[in-house]
Amino acid sequence: GTARHDREMAIQAKRNLSKTTDPVERLRLQCLARGSAGIKGLSRVFRIMDDDNSRTLDFKEFVKGLNDYAMMIDKEEAQEIFRIFDKDGSGTIDFDEFLVTLRPPMSNARKEIIMQAFRKLDKTGDGVITIEDLRGVYNAKHHPKYQNGDWTEDQVFRAFLDNFDSPYDKDGKVTTEEFMNYYAGVSASIDTDVYFIVMMKNAWKL
Question: Tell me: the pLDDT tens digits for 129-143?
Fold first, then answer.
């Protein structure tokens, strides 16, 4: 059902864009208008621009990233957004902080069910999901690529983890933050908490 949610969310985001004056909300809606991976896509563009791997961006890089991603934002608005994210006034913004702030807000009920799924997957309880964690929880044998012999069990697990992993840092480990970011995109396309919780329970057999 995610494709349908994505379409609905994109239409909704475009509709709300004409109504909002808040610059951060406008940026968020422009990302969501591209579907739930929209915010992830923007972070990927920023990652490419971060030549020195500092995980931070200055204003020039920030504006270039927005332009490369074809975001419709004028310079004043970009300055205002940058100021909001540059909390310590250092003249640079932190990637991860930027993504968390851009993430659509979620109710506590949604955060709780996402954390339940995370804890179920995190067998070792160390706050990170790895291939080891998945062995007992996720059955790779039903995967078509495993069945036709293209992939090993570990490759299926890795592909599964890559869905949630940060686009700029695929290390085969999924942190709580990355898991939350992924589901924040999905969550934005689902109107009611009840429906979101049912979807999560079914997906993860909670």
Answer: 998 888 878 888 888
Model pLDDT, residue 148: 92
Closest CA to 46 of 117, 96, 107: 96
∠ CA(108), CA(47), CA(134), 5° rounding? 55
* Host H or E run for residue 174: strand 174-175
Q: SS3 string of 86-134?
A: CCCCCCEEEHHHHHHHHCCCCCHHHHHHHHHHHHHHCCCCCCEECHHHH
Domain 108-204, CATH 2.10.110.10 — does that match?
Answer: no
Query: Residue 18 corresponds to which tokens in the numbers above?
Result: 């004409």
Domain ranges of the chain: 2-102, 108-204
What architecture does CATH give domain 2-102?
Orthogonal Bundle (1.10)
Average pLDDT, rounded, for the chain: 84
User: What local confidence, expressed as pLDDT, does residue 167 receive?
Assistant: 61
Number of H-type helices and E-type strands within the chain: 12, 4
Checking if the pLDDT of 14 tops 70, the result is yes
CB-based contact 56:97 (threshold 8 Å): no
Token look-up 């920023």 returns 46
pLDDT in tens, 44-76: 788 777 777 788 889 998 888 888 888 878 889
